[in-house]
Specification:
This protein is an all-alpha fold. Helices cover 84% and strands 0% of the residues. Helix 3 packs across helix 9 and helix 4 runs antiparallel to helix 5. The two termini are 25 Å apart.
Length: 450
């Protein structure tokens, strides 16, 4: 097959997995988008509460996603090698492990809510709204982590359309739930922005239950018999998930904590800075779903190829996905830069938020390409079951360059919030270069080794 035809054929196979997954994850992230949008029209204090609360939740949630993410390469290798008994058993044990991880995450979110007043100098109402939001969304943590484990299974076997429709329905459910709980409809308490946390928790359970029923009873998935011979938790079965997933957790924590630390450091500067940070991060979070979905899809495709002992094809798949992701991100970055003001106006009419947000969103537009490249390269490396070196690269790029340089630019020379975002562009560029270089080395090594 000619190179051009091979390129588009592999891109087609990747997009079959990635596009439905992207829509599903955009829908899931869209709950945060809707939360921010609706809270912003209640008051600036509610927007700040939801913004800060969602940042805290996201830090814990995204960190713990390392374990369901680790299931993707494990399951795709088994699927590629046609080891279906191993596929079923690993999925079932992964669900048990993710349930335990989700319960731990819920506890951490609740504990954060308890100690929150010691760190914020906001007015009492805003602090209380933030706490109540965290208590509400913490209830949904176990369902959300288990749901991501089920998504990893669907991606590993190359069938993601069902998760897309379930995600869309969950997003549509989130909108009326938010309205009812924010404004106290039908005799329910008027919770303001805090109602968004409880609404999100309900949506997480809806998504998890819907996906489990689909994977258990849909015609395509019946051959895998996920709901049969379901064993109790087995520590030995947890070990490969923990070994692969722990470095991924650290990588995710390093990346997301950079944004959370920025929020923490500017929290004392005033509600308007937190509000801007949340609006821009919400927009960036939605856009991030494109490379994130491509990263998950390329991990599955590479895992399937390696399971079938097709090493040359695995390397070619990585190249295809990085090129396609960079082109897509370039288009997204240009559109975001051009239309940043109308996008910001969807969230807030506050002049201070709009003025500061316009500058910060331009910087977010500038890093779209390098963010896409580093995300997809990291996903490809997970397909190779390589997670330790990427963890060290993320530490160097995000903590040393991103946070260290950002703190210096922000406080050392007085650039404020802009300084952190300048440093973020530098950090993402460094991560893209280093991860891509390591991916190239590892792919070549795998091809030439026996």
């Amino acid at each position: 097959m000619q190179t051009k035809k091979r390129f588009f054929y592999e891109l087609y196979l990747i997009l079959i997995i990635a596009l439905p997954m992207m829509i599903a994850q955009v829908a899931q992230v869209g709950t945060g988008f809707v939360d921010t949008l609706m809270a912003g029209h209640v008051s600036r204090g509610d927007l700040a509460a939801v913004g800060f609360g969602s940042s805290v939740f996201a830090t814990i949630y995204i960190t713990l996603l390392g374990f369901p993410t680790a299931l993707n390469p494990l399951l795709s290798h088994a699927f590629g090698a046609k080891r279906f008994d191993e596929l079923r058993h690993t999925t079932q044990q992964g669900v048990w492990l993710c349930l335990l991880v989700g319960l731990l995450g819920a506890l951490l979110v609740a504990l954060t809510a308890i100690i929150l007043p010691n760190f914020l100098n906001w007015d009492e109402k805003t602090v209380r709204t933030t706490q109540l939001y965290l208590y509400g969304i913490a209830l949904g943590m176990p369902a959300s982590i288990v749901g991501r484990a089920l998504q990893s299974f669907a991606a590993a076997v190359g069938r993601t359309q069902e998760m897309m429709w379930i995600g869309i329905l969950g997003l549509l459910l989130n909108i009326p739930l938010n309205y009812v709980l924010i404004y106290g409809v039908w005799g329910l308490p008027k919770l303001g922005g805090a109602g968004c946390g409880f609404a999100s928790a309900v949506v997480f359970y809806f998504n998890m239950i819907g996906l489990w029923l689909c994977l258990s009873y849909h015609t395509y998935f019946k051959k895998f018999a996920l709901n049969q011979a379901f064993r109790l938790p087995e520590y030995q079965a947890f070990k490969p998930i923990l070994q692969l997933g722990t470095p991924i957790c650290f990588s995710f924590f390093i990346e997301v904590s950079l944004f959370t630390f920025i929020s923490l450091l500017i929290a004392r500067s005033g509600e308007e800075f937190v509000a801007v940070q949340q609006v821009v991060m919400t927009i960036s979070g939605v856009l991030y779903m494109l490379p994130q979905s491509l990263g998950a899809a390329v991990a599955a495709r590479i895992g399937q190829s390696l399971g079938a002992k097709q090493r040359q094809r695995a390397a070619f798949i990585a190249q295809v996905c990085i090129i396609a992701g960079a082109v897509g991100a370039l288009l997204v970055g240009v559109l975001l830069g051009v239309f940043r003001l109308p996008v910001l106006q969807l969230f807030s009419t506050d002049e201070t938020v709009l003025k500061l947000g316009r500058d910060i969103l331009l910087l977010a537009a500038a890093y779209q390409v390098v963010d896409a490249v580093q995300t997809i390269a990291a996903g490809a490396l997970r397909g190779y079951k390589a997670t330790k070196v990427p963890m060290m690269i993320h530490f160097t790029a995000f903590w040393l360059l991103g946070l260290g340089l950002g703190a210096y630019l922000c406080f050392g020379i007085g650039l404020g919030l802009h300084g952190f975002w300048y440093a973020l562009v530098v950090a993402l560029t460094a991560a893209a270069v280093l991860l891509t270089a390591y991916l190239y080395y590892l792919a070549r090594y795998m091809i030439h080794s026996r």
